[in-house]
Amino acid sequence: MRSTRMRGRAPALAAAAATLTAGSLAAAAPAAPTVQMAGAGSNERVRYGERVAFSGRVPQGLAGQTVRLEHAPRGGRWRSVSSKSTGSAGSYRFAVKARRSGDYRAVAQGSGTSSAKRVTVVAGLGGRAGRYVKQGASVRVRGGLRPGLSGRRVALQLRSRGRWKTVDRARTRRGGRFTAGFTPRKLGGFRLRMRFGGDAHNAAVSRRLRGRTYVLRPGHASWYGPGLYGNRLGCGGRLRTSTVGVANKRLPCGTKVVFRYRGRTATLPVVDRGPYVGGREWDLTAAAKRKLGFGSTGTVWTSK
Hints:
Immunoglobulin-like; Barwin-like endoglucanases; 11% helix
C-alpha cells in the first residue's frame, strides 16, 4: 500500500522539482537590457575634451520619461552625468565632453538600464621648449597633461638616430603642470616630444614639440663685399650684392648653419672660403649681414 502511495507522489514531486529548478534558473539569469543605446558593447576611442554622443530609445516609446546617463571609470562606481526627458517615440540623446576612460549607460526611470558602451579617452598633452639654447645650458620644457591630476609620470624624449630616446622624466603637479629638461651634448638642431604612457584614467599619448631646438656656440665674425663683387666664390658662382651666405674654412660647401645675433636669426649656407684674418671663423656676405643686423665685426652664435 505504501509503495502504491509513493508511486503516486513521484510524478507530483518531479513536476514540483522541475518547476522550482526552472524558476531558480530564471531568477539567476541576468535580465535583458530594456533600454536601447546605439553602440552598446563597443569601445569608442576619443581625444580628451572631444564630445561623445549617446542615443537610443526606452521601451513602449513613451515621451517625457526621465533618462539618466551614467559613467563608471575603470574599477569605479556608476555616477550620474546628465539627465533628460525622452522625446517623441521615447528617443533620447546626450552629448558629453570626454575626460576620463570608462563605461557609459542609460538608465530610464521605471524601465531599466541599457548595456554599457566603453569610451577610451586619450589624454591631452602639450609642452613648449625654447628654440635656442647656448652650449652647456639646459633645455627646459614646460607643459600640461589633461585631465589636470597630480602625480602622473611624463617623459621628455629626443629624436636620435631614427629613434625616440628618453632624456628626462617628471611628475605632474597640481593642475597637471610639469617641467622637464636636460643638457644637450652636441651642437645643432634636434626634435623633442613629450610622452605619457597611460593609466587607469586615460590612454597613452605622445606630442611633438613645435619646431626644432638649436644648441649654439659663440664664434667671431666679420663681413665682406665692397670691392669684391664679381669675384668667383670658393663654392662656385660669383659674389653679388644679393648673395646670401657665409665664408668658412672647414665646413663643406652648401652646409646650412643657423646664426643668431642680438635676437635675430638666419639660416645661411656656406658659399665661400675664408676668412683669412686671425681669430675669425665666419665672413658674412653683405646680404647676410643685413638679415642679421650685424655690424662690422663681433660675436655670433652658430649651430656648427
